[in-house]
Amino acid sequence: MTHAKFLDRLLAPSLEDIEALAAQALAEIPPALRDRVRGIVIRVDEFADEETLEQMGIEDPFTLTGLYRGVPLRDKSVGDSGAIPDMIFLYRRPILDEWCETGATLGGLVREVLIHEIGHHFGFSDDDMDALD
Fold first, then answer.
1. Are 87 and 40 in contact (CB under 8 A)?
2. Single pTM value for the model
3. What domain range is 29 assigned to?
């Protein structure tokens, strides 16, 4: 769904809208990379839960737009089979706030957060990804 369609409805994009934008962004990444993220669960929630925020030392839930939970590819082993699947969480309300504050397109912002979290799946730290930017 495009930015203009959200404005036409005068409604904030829903969880499902963010999920659809994430699916579109995932479909647009190069096939070689997309194959490496097959099986990752992408979940959209309003905010990170209290336990996650506490574990990360985050007081303001609006500061966390996404999170990767899993074992980075470089650390995976055969013994990991049967483990909980890797997950990428996208947090709707913080993403919407950033969208309003920055003027970026919503699809572009969702893509940016998703790619950042995929970077963690590949084993990149936040500092590594900042250096790439």
1. yes
2. 0.84
3. 11-71+84-127
Q: Is residue 55 part of a domain?
A: yes
Token pair 């997950």 in the structure block, residue: 87
pLDDT for the residue numbered 20: 96
* 123 in Cβ contact with 72 (< 8 Å): yes
Positions in the chain short of pLDDT 50:
1
Q: Which DSSP string do the residues of 28-93 spell out, in sequence order?
A: HS-HHHHHHTTT-EEEEESS--HHHHHHHT-S-GGG--EEEES--GGG--GGGTTSPPPEEEEEHH
Domain holding 38: CATH number? 3.30.2010.20
How many whole angstroms separate alpha carbon 47 and alpha carbon 132? 27
